[in-house]
Amino acid sequence: MKFRWTPPAHGEWSAGEPPPVWLYVALFVLIECAFLAGTVVTWPHDKSMASEDFTRTALAAPFALWIAVSSVLYASLYDNRAFEAAVKNTARWHLLMRWQRGVRSGVAVLDTVIFAPEPDLAERMLKLDGSPPENPGRVMRLNGIESTDGAPRERMVIEALLAPLAAKLARAARSDSFDIVMQCERAESYVDVLAVWTKLKLPGKPRIRWLSNDRNPGFANVWFEGDTDTAYAASSESGRNPKYRLVLAWHLNGTGADVRPAASEAAVALLLGSPALMQERPQLKCHAWLLRQIVADADEVEKALARLLAAEQVPRERIRHFWYSRLKGLALHATLGAVKDTELKVEQHALDSATGPQAPVARWLLQALAAKMAHFGQGAQLVALPRPDGVVLNIVVKDKPAVDVPWKSEYEYALLPWADLSGCMALWAFLMLMSPYETWHTFEVVMTVVIGLVVVLSCAWRIFWGPRIYTDDVWRAYG
Fold first, then answer.
1. How far is Cα 249 from Cα 396, in angstroms, rounded to an integer?
2. What pLDDT score was predicted for residue 384?
3. Looking at 166-261, which runs of residues are DSSP E strands?
4. Residue pLDDT, tens place only, 442-476
5. N or C: which terminal CB in the chain sees fewer CB atoms within 10 Å?
């Protein structure tokens, strides 16, 4: 299901203001004067007014009726509305919490290994160490990665990627929730991965999944959910996302005399942790978080970036750097224009200008570079990458933003309908005071049963039916 980037609910429901005090005062005067006048007019001439009957009829009964009418008025004009608003606002709060949790979901970057044609590429592109590399249009080769002792160059690259991560990979492999995603030119490269795994004496035999370079890894949607890993449906062992995932991606050019390479070489490894893992082990240190991506057609990039920023994964002022690679034509110009129009105060970093034309490995190389700089305290990083007919945007941050939808005291409500209960009790007292019978009679029994039933129904509505009905209304409309 396509993720919804706009908040799922409208503004808060309001109960308005309770009835003013003068209304209750006016009711009291009106009811009391009416009963007092009526009692005086109909009072027997031969009976003293200084009696219990006169006090009951002229004073106690109208007071009870005033309490009943005032309670009904308060309940109908304010309390019931306040209850409805509180329940709906509570449901809205849960909806917004769920939505914001989804917006700010991400995968943790536990560690990275980066091999690029230029040393210290991330630091130099951000001018932290040395001058930024400038190699536009130049196809570059990885230095220091050569075939030795008959081992193919590809295997040497894999070993160079895995060796620095050996200790963490051993712990991840022992978790029984670990796999390797390999994105490269040949599916047969898994043999070299297994050979290096064995050489490094890492435990077990990991499950390795291959993605061709033209395959979308589904990172924008699938990797944040606990659903079936549909991006790897071709695998014979598809299932739920593992807690640990090692991404290996590389591009090496051929060495033949007739080979005309079109893209620079690069290799990258990212050890990722799932949201479930980080929730179970909050003490586990990570370098950065890759937050949920948003995808858009090339002519919709401006709207997509606006939605991404409006969703407030992080405050926009924290975004300080913008990385992009392999964008061409409309996608490139629309993305650069969108960044300019949103008035983001960011430094732009084009990987293609730094290390020449890029292969599909750039989708992971760029994430690793951004994660490294986020880890180095350089603020949040915005990343833009191509997709068929469009662009993928995501933000990389050092610390995962917390869910912070504010809770208000207005969302709370009394478990019992005190206004209704007060009105029922006052009405029962009024009826008993005005009863023409000296002893308990059918009239009193019927009125007591009816009012008792109203009390039970009012409590049932407040405790059970009302919250469910109002909550269901909100979830049906906005969930």
1. 19
2. 96
3. 178-183, 207-211, 244-251
4. 888 999 999 999 999 999 999 999 999 999 999 99
5. N
> DSSP assignment, residue 351?
H
Give percent above pLDDT 70 in the chain: 94
- Given the structure tokens 């029962």, which residue do they identify? 428
Q: How far apart are CA 267 and CA 250, in angstroms?
A: 4
Whole-angstrom distance, CA of residue 347 vs CA of residue 149: 44
* Residue ranges of domains in the chain: 21-100+406-478, 105-397
Q: Model's pTM, two decimal places?
A: 0.83
Q: How many CA atoms lie within 13 A of 362 on its CB side?
A: 26
CB neighbour burial string for 282-306, b if at least 16 within 10 angstroms, e if fewer = eeeebbbbbbbbbbbbbeebbebbe
Instruction: Encode pLDDT of 175-211 as tens digits.
Output: 989 999 999 999 999 999 999 999 999 999 999 999 8
How many Å apart are CA 475 and CA 98, to the nearest integer? 12
Say how far apart CA 34 and CA 40 lie, in whole Å: 10
Residues 6+ apart with CB under 8 A from 131: 124
Q: Tens digits of per-residue pLDDT, 135-190?
A: 999 999 998 777 776 678 899 999 999 999 999 999 999 998 999 999 999 999 99
DSSP 214: T
Q: Does domain 105-397 have CATH number 3.40.225.10?
A: no
Are 459 and 83 in contact by the 8 Å Cβ rule? The answer is no
Secondary element (H or E) of residue 123: helix 121-125
Greatest alpha-carbon span in the chain: 132
